[in-house]
Design a protein that fits this description.
The chain is 35% helix and 12% strand. It is an alpha+beta fold and 255 residues long. It has two domains: 119 residues; 104 residues, no CATH class. Strands 3-2-1-6-5-4 form a six-stranded mixed β-sheet, with helices on one face. Strand 1 and strand 2 form a beta hairpin. Helix 1 packs antiparallel against helix 2, helix 2 packs across helix 5 and helix 3 packs antiparallel against helix 4. The longest helix is centred in the middle third of the chain and has 23 residues. The chain is globular, with a radius of gyration of 18 Å. The two termini are 29 Å apart.
Length: 255
């Protein structure tokens, strides 16, 4: 799906900065897509858990150019990738590698999300697991928690992954983050001015997942729908509910 981000900015000028930041990631994604191998089977086991070592310099150069970063900022990550010390599959499980950046752990988490996402997208493309059931609320490709849910005809609920882009079915009733099914624990927030979007909350684990009506995806991708509904994150987090999966900018908490 080709989406004109400038058109989305015209429709939602208050979200100009997030959309423009995402456009930078899209440029990096296009470069990384050309660099990545088309099949994990061609890689040695030690090189199947992150970017192949021979491609690390090219990937980091593209990433630095897209986000206007200095090579010094990415140097610790580059060294760890070259040494085989980063396992991307641990990132969706909230396990960060022991790397220090001047900006702190929060910045490391965001950079690694944006940097690894093209790798996860390729993993989804070659895994054959996209579309399968989300067992216990985990992405069948990368084990992440859902960033979004959508309701389709049936009705059926599908969950969407912000790491690899996979989508698949999940039971209609219940919190996808903790599994709670008691009606008294589950709630819905419907902020004004955001048609097609709402927030499903869980008082058992104090988390939320934004819910998108399926027709929204006729006009935008799940990533862009997540960004377009940033005001709902602010509302939910203002009520002390938390996201379990980062948004397309790599953020769990909205500033």
């Amino acid at each position: 799906m080709t989406i004109n981000i400038e058109k989305l900015i015209e429709q939602r000028p208050h979200l100009k900065d997030p959309f423009e930041f995402y456009a930078k990631w899209q440029r990096f994604q296009r470069d990384a897509d050309e660099i990545l191998p088309r099949s994990r089977a061609t890689l040695a086991p030690a090189e199947s858990k992150a970017y192949p070592r021979k491609n690390v310099d090219a990937v980091l150069k593209s990433f630095a150019a897209a986000f206007h970063l200095s090579s010094e900022v990415l140097s610790p990550i580059g060294k760890a990738l070259a040494a085989g010390d980063i396992d991307f599959m641990l990132l969706p499980l909230d396990e960060l590698p022991p790397i220090s950046l001047p900006q702190g752990e929060g910045e490391l988490s965001t950079i690694l999300f944006l940097l690894s996402k093209p790798w996860f997208i390729r993993l989804r493309e070659v895994s054959g697991l996209d579309g399968r059931q989300w067992e216990e609320g985990h992405c069948p490709v990368c084990s992440a928690r859902p960033a979004l849910a959508s309701i389709i005809e049936g009705p059926q609920r599908r969950l969407h992954c912000s790491w690899c882009g996979a989508t698949g079915p999940y039971r209609f009733i219940g919190c996808p983050n903790c599994g709670a099914e008691e009606a008294v624990k589950l709630g819905t927030l419907v902020p004004e001015g955001e048609p097609g979007f709402r927030v499903a909350t869980c008082d058992a684990c104090r988390t939320y997942v934004k819910v998108v009506e399926s027709q929204i995806f006729e006009a935008m991708t799940p990533d862009l729908a997540d960004l377009a509904s940033l005001p709902l994150d602010i509302v939910a987090q203002g009520k002390d509910y938390a996201r379990r999966a980062p948004n397309p900018l790599g953020l769990l908490q909205i500033p």
